[in-house]
Amino acid sequence: MSAAQLLHDERSESKGWFRRAVEVMPGGVNSPVRAFKAVGGTPPFVASATGPYLTTVDGDDLIDLIASWGALILGHAHPAVVTAVEEAARRGTSFGLPTSQEVELAELIVSLVPSIEVVRMVNSGTEATASAVRVARAATAKSGIVKFAGCYHGHADPFLVRAGSGVATLGEPDSPGVPAATVADTRLARFNDLESVERAFAGGDIAAVIVEPVAGNMGVVPPASGFLNGLRELCDRWGAILIFDEVMTGFRVARGGAQERYGVTPDLTCLGKVVAGGTPAAAYGGSEDLMRRVAPDGPVYQAGTLAGNPLAVAAGLACLRHLVEHPELYDELEALGARLESRVSAALEEHGVAGCVQRVGAMFTVFFGPDLVRSWDEAATVDRDRFARFFHAAYRRGVLLAPSPFESLFLMEAHTAVIDEVAETLAAAVGEAR
Ligand code: KE4
Protein backbone atom coordinates (compact mmCIF):
# COMPACT_ATOMS: atom_id res chain seq x y z
CA MET A 1 0.00 0.00 0.00
CA SER A 2 1.49 3.38 -0.94
CA ALA A 3 2.32 5.73 1.88
CA ALA A 4 0.00 8.38 0.48
CA GLN A 5 -2.92 6.01 0.70
CA LEU A 6 -2.01 5.59 4.35
CA LEU A 7 -2.12 9.36 4.72
CA HIS A 8 -5.77 9.18 3.68
CA ASP A 9 -6.54 5.59 4.58
CA GLU A 10 -9.10 5.20 7.33
CA ARG A 11 -7.55 1.87 8.27
CA SER A 12 -3.99 3.01 8.88
CA GLU A 13 -2.46 2.80 12.31
CA SER A 14 -1.62 6.50 12.06
CA LYS A 15 -5.27 7.30 11.46
CA GLY A 16 -6.22 5.27 14.50
CA TRP A 17 -3.73 7.09 16.67
CA PHE A 18 -4.79 10.43 15.20
CA ARG A 19 -8.43 9.71 16.10
CA ARG A 20 -7.34 9.11 19.69
CA ALA A 21 -5.04 12.13 19.66
CA VAL A 22 -7.69 14.63 18.56
CA GLU A 23 -9.83 13.52 21.50
CA VAL A 24 -7.31 14.69 24.06
CA MET A 25 -4.96 17.20 22.32
CA PRO A 26 -5.68 20.42 20.39
CA GLY A 27 -5.73 19.32 16.75
CA GLY A 28 -4.31 16.00 17.90
CA VAL A 29 -0.82 17.47 18.04
CA ASN A 30 1.60 19.24 20.32
CA SER A 31 2.50 21.81 17.69
CA PRO A 32 0.10 23.03 14.98
CA VAL A 33 2.18 22.43 11.85
CA ARG A 34 2.29 18.69 12.65
CA ALA A 35 -1.45 18.39 11.94
CA PHE A 36 -0.81 18.58 8.17
CA LYS A 37 -3.58 21.17 7.69
CA ALA A 38 -1.64 22.81 4.82
CA VAL A 39 -1.28 19.61 2.79
CA GLY A 40 -4.20 17.45 3.93
CA GLY A 41 -4.29 13.89 5.11
CA THR A 42 -3.39 12.25 8.38
CA PRO A 43 0.02 12.98 9.82
CA PRO A 44 2.19 9.87 9.97
CA PHE A 45 2.84 8.77 13.53
CA VAL A 46 6.50 7.96 14.06
CA ALA A 47 7.51 4.68 15.66
CA SER A 48 11.28 5.21 15.42
CA ALA A 49 14.00 6.88 13.40
CA THR A 50 17.62 6.29 12.46
CA GLY A 51 20.00 8.17 10.19
CA PRO A 52 17.96 9.81 7.40
CA TYR A 53 14.93 7.57 7.98
CA LEU A 54 11.72 7.78 9.96
CA THR A 55 9.70 4.58 10.42
CA THR A 56 5.97 5.16 10.90
CA VAL A 57 3.60 3.09 13.00
CA ASP A 58 2.35 1.76 9.65
CA GLY A 59 5.78 0.39 8.85
CA ASP A 60 6.61 3.03 6.21
CA ASP A 61 10.27 4.00 5.98
CA LEU A 62 10.49 7.65 4.93
CA ILE A 63 13.57 9.72 4.12
CA ASP A 64 13.05 12.68 6.42
CA LEU A 65 13.71 16.24 5.24
CA ILE A 66 11.99 17.80 8.26
CA ALA A 67 14.88 16.74 10.55
CA SER A 68 12.84 17.81 13.59
CA TRP A 69 12.44 21.27 11.99
CA GLY A 70 16.17 21.67 11.72
CA ALA A 71 17.09 20.41 15.19
CA LEU A 72 18.91 17.40 13.69
CA ILE A 73 22.03 18.05 11.66
CA LEU A 74 23.79 14.70 12.16
CA GLY A 75 20.85 12.34 11.66
CA HIS A 76 18.24 10.56 13.73
CA ALA A 77 19.46 8.56 16.75
CA HIS A 78 23.09 9.44 16.10
CA PRO A 79 25.17 7.02 18.23
CA ALA A 80 27.20 9.77 19.89
CA VAL A 81 24.05 11.62 20.94
CA VAL A 82 22.14 8.52 22.05
CA THR A 83 25.07 7.26 24.12
CA ALA A 84 25.55 10.66 25.75
CA VAL A 85 21.86 10.88 26.70
CA GLU A 86 21.80 7.28 27.98
CA GLU A 87 24.85 7.89 30.17
CA ALA A 88 23.45 11.20 31.44
CA ALA A 89 20.13 9.58 32.30
CA ARG A 90 21.90 7.01 34.43
CA ARG A 91 23.38 9.87 36.44
CA GLY A 92 19.93 11.38 36.99
CA THR A 93 17.56 13.33 34.76
CA SER A 94 17.36 16.69 36.53
CA PHE A 95 18.86 18.33 39.59
CA GLY A 96 17.87 21.97 39.53
CA LEU A 97 21.47 22.61 40.49
CA PRO A 98 24.59 23.41 38.48
CA THR A 99 26.49 20.68 36.66
CA SER A 100 29.96 20.72 35.13
CA GLN A 101 28.50 19.65 31.79
CA GLU A 102 26.40 22.81 31.42
CA VAL A 103 29.57 24.86 31.98
CA GLU A 104 31.31 22.89 29.25
CA LEU A 105 28.37 23.49 26.89
CA ALA A 106 28.35 27.21 27.69
CA GLU A 107 32.10 27.41 27.06
CA LEU A 108 31.66 25.59 23.74
CA ILE A 109 28.87 27.93 22.63
CA VAL A 110 30.99 30.96 23.59
CA SER A 111 33.91 29.56 21.59
CA LEU A 112 31.79 28.95 18.49
CA VAL A 113 29.38 31.91 18.23
CA PRO A 114 31.14 35.24 17.52
CA SER A 115 28.68 37.50 19.37
CA ILE A 116 28.40 35.41 22.52
CA GLU A 117 30.59 36.13 25.57
CA VAL A 118 27.99 35.05 28.14
CA VAL A 119 25.12 32.61 27.53
CA ARG A 120 22.03 31.40 29.36
CA MET A 121 20.37 28.05 28.60
CA VAL A 122 16.58 27.95 28.35
CA ASN A 123 14.08 25.29 27.23
CA SER A 124 12.78 26.54 23.89
CA GLY A 125 13.46 29.00 21.13
CA THR A 126 10.45 30.99 22.29
CA GLU A 127 12.00 31.42 25.72
CA ALA A 128 15.29 32.45 24.13
CA THR A 129 13.79 35.16 21.95
CA ALA A 130 11.41 36.48 24.60
CA SER A 131 14.29 36.70 27.08
CA ALA A 132 16.57 38.43 24.56
CA VAL A 133 13.90 41.05 23.90
CA ARG A 134 13.53 41.61 27.65
CA VAL A 135 17.28 42.17 27.99
CA ALA A 136 17.26 44.59 25.06
CA ARG A 137 14.37 46.58 26.53
CA ALA A 138 16.13 46.73 29.90
CA ALA A 139 19.44 47.80 28.35
CA THR A 140 17.91 50.61 26.27
CA ALA A 141 15.02 51.64 28.56
CA LYS A 142 12.92 51.55 25.40
CA SER A 143 9.92 49.36 24.55
CA GLY A 144 9.62 49.16 20.77
CA ILE A 145 10.79 46.15 18.82
CA VAL A 146 11.05 45.71 15.07
CA LYS A 147 10.35 42.32 13.54
CA PHE A 148 9.85 41.29 9.94
CA ALA A 149 6.69 40.05 8.28
CA GLY A 150 7.15 36.35 7.58
CA CYS A 151 9.75 35.83 10.28
CA TYR A 152 8.81 33.66 13.25
CA HIS A 153 10.43 33.92 16.65
CA GLY A 154 8.24 31.55 18.65
CA HIS A 155 4.85 32.16 20.20
CA ALA A 156 5.57 34.81 22.87
CA ASP A 157 2.94 37.55 22.75
CA PRO A 158 5.12 40.41 21.42
CA PHE A 159 5.92 38.40 18.28
CA LEU A 160 2.35 37.38 17.37
CA VAL A 161 1.57 40.31 15.14
CA ARG A 162 0.56 40.70 11.52
CA ALA A 163 0.71 43.70 9.29
CA GLY A 164 -1.73 46.20 10.65
CA SER A 165 -4.41 47.33 8.21
CA GLY A 166 -3.63 50.82 7.05
CA VAL A 167 -0.71 51.74 9.20
CA ALA A 168 2.30 50.31 7.39
CA THR A 169 4.30 49.28 10.37
CA LEU A 170 2.03 48.99 13.40
CA GLY A 171 1.34 45.36 14.29
CA GLU A 172 -2.06 44.02 15.16
CA PRO A 173 -2.46 40.87 17.26
CA ASP A 174 -2.24 37.74 15.14
CA SER A 175 -3.89 35.54 17.71
CA PRO A 176 -6.81 35.80 20.11
CA GLY A 177 -5.54 36.15 23.63
CA VAL A 178 -2.83 38.63 22.64
CA PRO A 179 -3.93 42.03 23.94
CA ALA A 180 -3.47 44.91 21.51
CA ALA A 181 -1.42 46.62 24.19
CA THR A 182 1.07 43.76 24.14
CA VAL A 183 1.85 44.23 20.46
CA ALA A 184 1.48 48.00 20.44
CA ASP A 185 5.26 48.21 20.76
CA THR A 186 5.92 45.81 17.91
CA ARG A 187 6.70 47.36 14.55
CA LEU A 188 6.57 45.27 11.40
CA ALA A 189 9.10 45.80 8.63
CA ARG A 190 9.71 44.02 5.35
CA PHE A 191 12.59 41.55 5.13
CA ASN A 192 15.36 42.72 2.79
CA ASP A 193 13.92 46.26 2.84
CA LEU A 194 16.08 48.64 4.90
CA GLU A 195 13.82 51.59 4.14
CA SER A 196 10.95 49.84 5.91
CA VAL A 197 13.24 49.48 8.93
CA GLU A 198 14.17 53.16 8.82
CA ARG A 199 10.45 54.01 8.81
CA ALA A 200 9.96 51.85 11.87
CA PHE A 201 12.86 53.54 13.64
CA ALA A 202 11.45 56.95 12.73
CA GLY A 203 8.53 56.07 14.98
CA GLY A 204 11.00 56.25 17.86
CA ASP A 205 11.51 54.25 21.04
CA ILE A 206 12.96 51.16 19.38
CA ALA A 207 14.80 48.88 21.81
CA ALA A 208 15.66 46.14 19.36
CA VAL A 209 15.47 44.73 15.89
CA ILE A 210 14.96 40.96 15.91
CA VAL A 211 15.58 39.08 12.69
CA GLU A 212 16.09 35.61 11.34
CA PRO A 213 19.38 36.42 9.54
CA VAL A 214 18.37 33.83 6.97
CA ALA A 215 14.61 33.70 7.01
CA GLY A 216 13.36 30.12 7.28
CA ASN A 217 9.78 30.55 8.45
CA MET A 218 8.37 31.94 5.24
CA GLY A 219 10.40 29.41 3.35
CA VAL A 220 14.12 30.07 2.94
CA VAL A 221 14.79 33.70 2.05
CA PRO A 222 18.48 34.68 2.11
CA PRO A 223 19.47 38.18 3.24
CA ALA A 224 20.06 40.45 0.25
CA SER A 225 23.58 41.81 -0.03
CA GLY A 226 24.03 44.56 2.53
CA PHE A 227 20.79 43.86 4.38
CA LEU A 228 22.32 42.48 7.57
CA ASN A 229 25.06 45.13 7.53
CA GLY A 230 22.36 47.72 7.06
CA LEU A 231 20.52 46.46 10.14
CA ARG A 232 23.76 46.65 12.10
CA GLU A 233 24.31 50.24 11.01
CA LEU A 234 20.72 51.31 11.75
CA CYS A 235 20.84 49.78 15.23
CA ASP A 236 24.13 51.53 15.94
CA ARG A 237 22.77 54.83 14.65
CA TRP A 238 19.56 54.64 16.69
CA GLY A 239 21.03 53.01 19.81
CA ALA A 240 19.03 49.81 19.43
CA ILE A 241 20.02 46.20 20.11
CA LEU A 242 20.39 43.88 17.10
CA ILE A 243 19.09 40.42 17.92
CA PHE A 244 19.85 37.54 15.54
CA ASP A 245 17.33 34.78 16.02
CA GLU A 246 19.58 31.89 15.03
CA VAL A 247 17.34 29.19 16.46
CA MET A 248 17.22 27.71 12.95
CA THR A 249 20.47 29.00 11.39
CA GLY A 250 22.71 28.47 14.41
CA PHE A 251 25.36 25.81 13.76
CA ARG A 252 23.49 25.07 10.48
CA VAL A 253 24.43 27.64 7.83
CA ALA A 254 27.95 27.70 9.30
CA ARG A 255 29.42 26.39 12.50
CA GLY A 256 29.25 29.92 13.92
CA GLY A 257 25.82 30.45 12.40
CA ALA A 258 24.68 33.17 10.00
CA GLN A 259 26.72 35.76 11.89
CA GLU A 260 29.87 33.84 10.92
CA ARG A 261 28.66 33.14 7.36
CA TYR A 262 27.79 36.77 6.63
CA GLY A 263 30.31 38.46 8.93
CA VAL A 264 27.76 40.58 10.77
CA THR A 265 27.84 40.47 14.57
CA PRO A 266 24.59 41.06 16.46
CA ASP A 267 24.39 42.24 20.06
CA LEU A 268 22.32 39.24 21.18
CA THR A 269 21.89 35.81 19.62
CA CYS A 270 19.14 33.26 20.17
CA LEU A 271 19.95 29.59 19.62
CA GLY A 272 17.84 26.43 19.60
CA LYS A 273 17.38 23.18 17.68
CA VAL A 274 20.96 22.05 16.81
CA VAL A 275 22.35 23.50 20.06
CA ALA A 276 20.59 20.68 21.95
CA GLY A 277 21.05 17.91 19.40
CA GLY A 278 17.33 17.29 19.04
CA THR A 279 16.39 17.56 22.72
CA PRO A 280 14.42 20.39 24.40
CA ALA A 281 16.88 23.17 25.03
CA ALA A 282 17.77 26.56 23.62
CA ALA A 283 19.92 29.51 24.63
CA TYR A 284 20.42 33.24 24.33
CA GLY A 285 23.65 35.14 24.75
CA GLY A 286 25.68 38.18 23.89
CA SER A 287 28.18 40.66 25.31
CA GLU A 288 29.25 40.78 28.93
CA ASP A 289 27.57 44.17 29.22
CA LEU A 290 24.19 42.93 28.08
CA MET A 291 24.16 39.48 29.62
CA ARG A 292 25.40 40.59 33.05
CA ARG A 293 22.06 42.35 33.37
CA VAL A 294 20.36 38.94 33.62
CA ALA A 295 19.50 37.67 37.11
CA PRO A 296 21.18 36.94 39.39
CA ASP A 297 24.03 39.12 38.11
CA GLY A 298 21.59 41.88 37.31
CA PRO A 299 17.91 42.79 37.67
CA VAL A 300 16.51 41.35 34.42
CA TYR A 301 14.57 38.37 35.64
CA GLN A 302 14.54 35.09 33.73
CA ALA A 303 14.48 31.57 35.15
CA GLY A 304 13.63 27.97 34.29
CA THR A 305 13.23 24.77 36.30
CA LEU A 306 14.70 22.59 33.58
CA ALA A 307 17.08 25.10 32.05
CA GLY A 308 20.44 23.42 31.44
CA ASN A 309 18.80 20.04 31.88
CA PRO A 310 21.47 17.31 32.04
CA LEU A 311 19.92 15.19 29.25
CA ALA A 312 19.64 18.12 26.85
CA VAL A 313 23.10 19.38 27.77
CA ALA A 314 24.55 15.93 27.12
CA ALA A 315 22.90 15.79 23.70
CA GLY A 316 23.98 19.34 22.86
CA LEU A 317 27.58 18.68 23.91
CA ALA A 318 27.71 15.46 21.85
CA CYS A 319 26.29 17.20 18.79
CA LEU A 320 28.41 20.34 18.94
CA ARG A 321 31.58 18.36 19.71
CA HIS A 322 30.90 16.30 16.57
CA LEU A 323 30.60 19.52 14.57
CA VAL A 324 33.89 20.75 16.03
CA GLU A 325 35.66 17.47 15.30
CA HIS A 326 34.28 17.31 11.75
CA PRO A 327 34.60 20.79 10.21
CA GLU A 328 34.43 19.17 6.78
CA LEU A 329 30.75 18.46 7.49
CA TYR A 330 29.80 21.99 6.39
CA ASP A 331 31.36 21.48 2.99
CA GLU A 332 29.56 18.15 2.75
CA LEU A 333 26.22 19.73 3.67
CA GLU A 334 26.84 22.51 1.15
CA ALA A 335 27.44 19.88 -1.54
CA LEU A 336 24.30 17.96 -0.58
CA GLY A 337 22.27 21.15 -0.75
CA ALA A 338 23.74 22.17 -4.08
CA ARG A 339 22.97 18.71 -5.48
CA LEU A 340 19.28 19.02 -4.57
CA GLU A 341 19.01 22.66 -5.62
CA SER A 342 20.46 21.85 -9.01
CA ARG A 343 18.29 18.80 -9.65
CA VAL A 344 15.03 20.38 -8.50
CA SER A 345 15.71 23.61 -10.39
CA ALA A 346 16.29 21.53 -13.53
CA ALA A 347 13.04 19.68 -12.91
CA LEU A 348 11.10 22.95 -12.62
CA GLU A 349 12.59 23.93 -15.99
CA GLU A 350 12.02 20.54 -17.60
CA HIS A 351 8.34 20.48 -16.63
CA GLY A 352 7.71 24.16 -17.26
CA VAL A 353 6.69 24.68 -13.64
CA ALA A 354 7.02 28.26 -12.40
CA GLY A 355 8.96 28.49 -9.18
CA CYS A 356 12.40 28.53 -7.63
CA VAL A 357 14.62 26.80 -5.12
CA GLN A 358 16.11 29.07 -2.47
CA ARG A 359 18.88 27.69 -0.30
CA VAL A 360 21.50 28.63 2.21
CA GLY A 361 23.78 25.71 3.02
CA ALA A 362 21.74 22.82 4.37
CA MET A 363 18.38 24.58 4.49
CA PHE A 364 16.24 25.12 1.40
CA THR A 365 12.72 25.64 0.12
CA VAL A 366 10.99 24.87 -3.18
CA PHE A 367 8.68 27.80 -3.95
CA PHE A 368 5.99 27.14 -6.57
CA GLY A 369 5.04 30.32 -8.44
CA PRO A 370 7.46 33.15 -7.82
CA ASP A 371 10.87 33.01 -9.50
CA LEU A 372 12.42 34.93 -6.62
CA VAL A 373 11.29 35.43 -3.01
CA ARG A 374 12.82 38.38 -1.17
CA SER A 375 10.15 38.94 1.48
CA TRP A 376 6.80 37.73 2.76
CA ASP A 377 4.99 39.73 0.05
CA GLU A 378 6.41 37.34 -2.56
CA ALA A 379 6.38 34.20 -0.40
CA ALA A 380 2.66 34.72 0.18
CA THR A 381 1.99 34.33 -3.55
CA VAL A 382 3.12 30.71 -3.71
CA ASP A 383 0.82 28.12 -5.29
CA ARG A 384 -0.29 26.27 -2.17
CA ASP A 385 -2.26 23.62 -4.04
CA ARG A 386 0.72 22.78 -6.23
CA PHE A 387 2.89 22.55 -3.12
CA ALA A 388 0.40 20.09 -1.58
CA ARG A 389 0.56 17.96 -4.75
CA PHE A 390 4.36 18.13 -4.61
CA PHE A 391 4.32 17.09 -0.95
CA HIS A 392 2.12 14.05 -1.54
CA ALA A 393 3.99 13.05 -4.69
CA ALA A 394 7.23 13.01 -2.68
CA TYR A 395 5.56 11.23 0.22
CA ARG A 396 4.22 8.48 -2.08
CA ARG A 397 7.81 7.97 -3.19
CA GLY A 398 9.07 7.72 0.38
CA VAL A 399 10.41 11.23 1.00
CA LEU A 400 8.83 13.29 3.78
CA LEU A 401 8.84 17.05 3.30
CA ALA A 402 7.79 19.75 5.75
CA PRO A 403 3.98 19.86 5.44
CA SER A 404 3.84 23.57 4.63
CA PRO A 405 5.06 25.75 1.75
CA PHE A 406 6.37 28.24 4.30
CA GLU A 407 8.91 26.02 5.95
CA SER A 408 12.49 25.10 5.29
CA LEU A 409 13.68 21.62 4.40
CA PHE A 410 16.77 20.50 6.23
CA LEU A 411 19.69 18.27 5.30
CA MET A 412 21.54 16.10 7.77
CA GLU A 413 24.93 14.41 7.58
CA ALA A 414 23.00 11.14 7.29
CA HIS A 415 21.45 12.26 3.96
CA THR A 416 24.80 11.68 2.26
CA ALA A 417 23.93 8.03 1.65
CA VAL A 418 20.54 8.79 0.06
CA ILE A 419 21.06 12.12 -1.68
CA ASP A 420 20.72 10.76 -5.21
CA GLU A 421 17.45 9.04 -4.30
CA VAL A 422 16.16 12.24 -2.73
CA ALA A 423 17.19 14.31 -5.76
CA GLU A 424 15.41 12.03 -8.23
CA THR A 425 12.35 11.74 -5.99
CA LEU A 426 11.97 15.51 -5.68
CA ALA A 427 12.45 15.90 -9.43
CA ALA A 428 9.74 13.32 -10.10
CA ALA A 429 7.46 14.98 -7.55
CA VAL A 430 7.86 18.31 -9.37
CA GLY A 431 6.76 16.61 -12.55
CA GLU A 432 3.74 15.05 -10.90
CA ALA A 433 2.78 18.35 -9.27
CA ARG A 434 2.84 20.38 -12.50
P1 KE4 B 1 10.50 26.87 19.73
O1 KE4 B 1 9.83 27.68 20.80
O2 KE4 B 1 9.50 26.18 18.80
O3 KE4 B 1 11.57 25.91 20.25
O4 KE4 B 1 11.33 27.87 18.80
C1 KE4 B 1 10.63 28.94 18.20
C2 KE4 B 1 11.43 29.45 17.02
C3 KE4 B 1 12.16 30.62 17.16
N1 KE4 B 1 12.89 31.12 16.15
C4 KE4 B 1 12.95 30.48 14.95
C5 KE4 B 1 13.77 31.07 13.85
C6 KE4 B 1 12.24 29.28 14.75
O5 KE4 B 1 12.29 28.66 13.55
C7 KE4 B 1 11.46 28.74 15.80
C8 KE4 B 1 10.64 27.47 15.64
N2 KE4 B 1 10.63 26.92 14.33
C9 KE4 B 1 9.46 26.16 13.96
C10 KE4 B 1 9.63 25.68 12.53
N3 KE4 B 1 9.38 26.69 11.60
C11 KE4 B 1 9.21 25.04 14.91
C12 KE4 B 1 8.21 24.02 14.42
C13 KE4 B 1 6.95 24.08 15.21
O6 KE4 B 1 6.47 25.21 15.50
O7 KE4 B 1 6.41 23.00 15.49
Keywords:
434 residues, alpha/beta, Aspartate Aminotransferase, domain 1, Aspartate Aminotransferase, domain 2, four-stranded mixed sheet, 15 helices, 16 strands, 16% strand
Number of strands: 16
Helix/strand structural class: alpha/beta
Q: Any idea what the radius of gyration is?
A: 21 Å
Small molecules bound in the structure, each named once: ligand KE4
Number of separate helices? 15
CATH class of the largest domain: Alpha Beta
Helix content: 25-40%
- Sum up the overall morphology in one term: globular
Largest sheet: 7 strands, mixed
> What name does CATH use for the topology of the largest domain?
Aspartate Aminotransferase, domain 2
Residues in β-strands, percent: 15-25%
Second CATH tier, the architecture of the largest domain: 3-Layer(aba) Sandwich
How far do the termini sit from each other?
Answer: 24 Å
Question: What is the spatial order of strands in the main beta sheet?
Answer: 4-12-11-10-9-5-8
In CATH terms, the superfamily of the largest domain is Type I PLP-dependent aspartate aminotransferase-like (Major domain)
**Roughly what is the average pLDDT, rounded to an integer?**
95
* Poorly predicted sequence stretches spanning 5 or more consecutive residues: 164-168
Instruction: Provide the domain count.
Output: 2
Structure description:
The chain has helices spanning 3-8, 13-24, 79-90, 100-112, 125-140, 180-183, 194-202, 227-238, 257-262, 288-291, 310-325, 328-350, 376-379, 384-396, 419-433; strands at 46-50, 53-56, 61-64, 118-122, 144-148, 161-163, 171-173, 186-189, 206-211, 241-246, 268-271, 282-286, 355-360, 363-368, 399-400, 409-410. Mean pLDDT is 95; it is low at 164-168. The two termini are 24 Å apart. Helix content is 38%, strand content 16%. It has 2 domains: 3-64 and 328-433, Aspartate Aminotransferase, domain 1; 79-325, Aspartate Aminotransferase, domain 2. By secondary structure, the chain is α/β, with parallel strands linked by helices. The strands form 4 sheets. Strands 4-12-11-10-9-5-8 form a 7-stranded mixed beta sheet, with helices on both faces. Strands 1-2-3-15 form a 4-stranded mixed beta sheet. A hairpin with a 4-residue loop joins strand 2 (53-56) and strand 3. Ligand KE4 binds next to helix 5.
